[in-house]
UniProtKB/TrEMBL annotation:
<keyword id="KW-0028">Amino-acid biosynthesis</keyword>
<dbReference type="GO" id="GO:0005737">
    <property type="term" value="C:cytoplasm"/>
</dbReference>
<feature type="binding site">
    <location>
        <position position="41"/>
    </location>
    <ligand>
        <name>L-glutamate</name>
    </ligand>
</feature>
<dbReference type="GO" id="GO:0008615">
    <property type="term" value="P:pyridoxine biosynthetic process"/>
</dbReference>
<protein>
    <recommendedName>
        <fullName>Phosphoserine aminotransferase</fullName>
        <ecNumber>2.6.1.52</ecNumber>
    </recommendedName>
</protein>
<keyword id="KW-0663">Pyridoxal phosphate</keyword>
<comment type="similarity">
    <text>Belongs to the class-V pyridoxal-phosphate-dependent aminotransferase family. SerC subfamily.</text>
</comment>
<feature type="binding site">
    <location>
        <position position="190"/>
    </location>
    <ligand>
        <name>pyridoxal 5'-phosphate</name>
    </ligand>
</feature>
<keyword id="KW-0664">Pyridoxine biosynthesis</keyword>
<comment type="function">
    <text>Catalyzes the reversible conversion of 3-phosphohydroxypyruvate to phosphoserine and of 3-hydroxy-2-oxo-4-phosphonooxybutanoate to phosphohydroxythreonine.</text>
</comment>
<dbReference type="InterPro" id="IPR015424">
    <property type="entry name" value="PyrdxlP-dep_Trfase"/>
</dbReference>
<comment type="subunit">
    <text>Homodimer.</text>
</comment>
<keyword id="KW-0718">Serine biosynthesis</keyword>
<feature type="binding site">
    <location>
        <position position="148"/>
    </location>
    <ligand>
        <name>pyridoxal 5'-phosphate</name>
    </ligand>
</feature>
<dbReference type="InterPro" id="IPR015421">
    <property type="entry name" value="PyrdxlP-dep_Trfase_major"/>
</dbReference>
<dbReference type="InterPro" id="IPR022278">
    <property type="entry name" value="Pser_aminoTfrase"/>
</dbReference>
<dbReference type="Pfam" id="PF00266">
    <property type="entry name" value="Aminotran_5"/>
</dbReference>
Amino acid sequence: MKKHNFSAGPCILPQEVLLRSSEAIMDFNGSGLSLIEISHRSKDFVDVMEKARSLALELLGLEGKGYSALFLHGGASMEFLMVAYNFLETKAGYLNTGTWSEKAIKEAKMFGDVVEVGSSKDENFNYIPKGYSVAEGLDYLHLTSNNTIFGTQIKKFPKTNVPLICDMSSDIFSRQLDFSQFDLIYAGAQKNMGPAGATLVVVKDDVLGKVSRKIPSMLDYQVHISKDSMFNTPPVFAVYTSMLTLEWLKNLGGIAAIEEINEKKARLLYSEIDLNPVFTGFANKEDRSSMNATFNLADEKLKDTFDALWKDAGINGLNGHRSVGGYRASMYNALSLESVGVLVDVMSEMERKG
Ligand SMILES: *Cc1c(COP(=O)(O)O)cnc(C)c1O
């Protein structure tokens, strides 16, 4: 039986996407060849890459607005250093909202000065710092829109005069935003788009080419743009599966439609967390994420009972990250409202038992 997959990443993907991508492994487009054994320069695959790139821009509302979409290797972690390599001349600002921000900061420090414009480390990252100021003269400001581990999400983005760069790995394509306020967006595919192996980068062309250092080809966004995201062999399976997920999303009605479903799922789960005395929420209410909900048991002695109940209900991937403990329910785009309902039923049953 298919599990209710609340895994934080790699994450649940739509069943129809899994079916179609597995078919392409055996026979791609009726060619008698597998997707993963044909040339990435063949017309069939070049079409896939172009479709994936244009769907990404279309869904984000960035088509024809001077942006390029790339599917690169190396995960979001590679972007931590590529961003700095391509943009950090002297000093950059970073908002420190958790483990992933800290990792991005660590890489950036190898290339220049890092100003932490704000940090929520004092409260184990259970909130999003607000009211911070962004000094003039920074090469860019880097944000993490959704903090996968701690379950917080930026709801309102700062207005700045410096380029805005955002790690959207765990909430890209999940909610409507004015994406044109960002100069560069990156996201590892495996949180909300596809399997691990590809990273989406969406970058405004005219912010590139401003650092004085020489950039190795593989780390240079302009090289990847000039080669239509085919500088070297791309991760074809991850790109194809991501393309199928983006098509699925478009057919569903795009980000506006999925946002409505995501809000329903989040409301259902958070109202249970708030009303059920057996559980306590981790993240600050106004900052909590619609993708990753973090919560704890009010009484740790109930752990074995609760763990047995959710596992029996066919739920997977509910354990919290080791730096937070407790539980984390990740409700990415492909997770159904029905699956959240199953979890909420288990939580109410705990209340009856407790
Ligand atoms: C998972 C995650 C990353 C790391 O992604 P990799 O593709 O494994 O490098 C970075 N940032 C955020 C917000 C994440 O959730």
